Amino acid sequence: QVQVVESGGGLVQAGGSLRLSCSASGSIFSINVVGWYRQAPGKQRELVARIISGGITEYADSVKGRFTISRDNAKMLYLQMNSVIPEDTAVYYCNAVVKIPLRGEYDYWGQGTQVTVSS
């Protein structure tokens, strides 16, 4: 059974930093952790940052220059959050993709980690 686990969230003052981590396990097929998403109260889940084919990174305009996504290997993903602002307050989710031969790709999500930025 695929498990995706996020950690590293918490309460931080505006202007501070946090580092989120994500690990994925449990699949006998190829699994890749690929991106971070977030959902603020009353809002839809949105992309924060992701790594696409070729190792290219993509960021939401609102976090460019402040957040950095990185990956140790296919199963460990990080999000370095610098110069945080209150608008970054949200539950942050990690997205993993499992590729099953002849069947396709499937998305998995963790339970999320809460990030709260105080002004």
**Strand residue percentage:** over 45%
The total of helices stands at 0
Q: What is the CA-based Rg, rounded? A: 14 Å
Query: Oligomeric form of this entry?
Result: single chain
Low-confidence stretches: none
Structural shape? elongated
**Largest sheet properties:** 7 strands, mixed
Straight-line N-to-C gap = 40 Å
Whole-number mean pLDDT: 95
Total strand count, please? 11
Order of helices and strands: EEEEEEEEEEE
Helix content: under 10%
Task: Describe the 3D structure.
By secondary structure, the chain is mainly β. The protein is built from no helices and eleven strands. Strands 2, 4, 5, 6, 9, 10 and 11 form a seven-stranded mixed sheet that branches. A four-stranded antiparallel sheet has the order 1-3-8-7, with no helix packed on it. The mean pLDDT is 95.
Secondary structure topology:
Elements: E1 3-7, E2 10-13, E3 18-25, E4 30-39, E5 46-51, E6 57-59, E7 67-73, E8 76-81, E9 90-100, E10 104-109, E11 113-118
Defining traits:
119 residues, mainly beta, 7-stranded mixed sheet, 4-stranded antiparallel sheet, 0% helix
Structure summarized in a few sentences:
The protein is mainly β and 119 residues long. It has strands spanning 3-7, 10-13, 18-25, 30-39, 46-51, 57-59, 67-73, 76-81, 90-100, 104-109, 113-118. 0% of the residues lie in helices and 61% in strands.
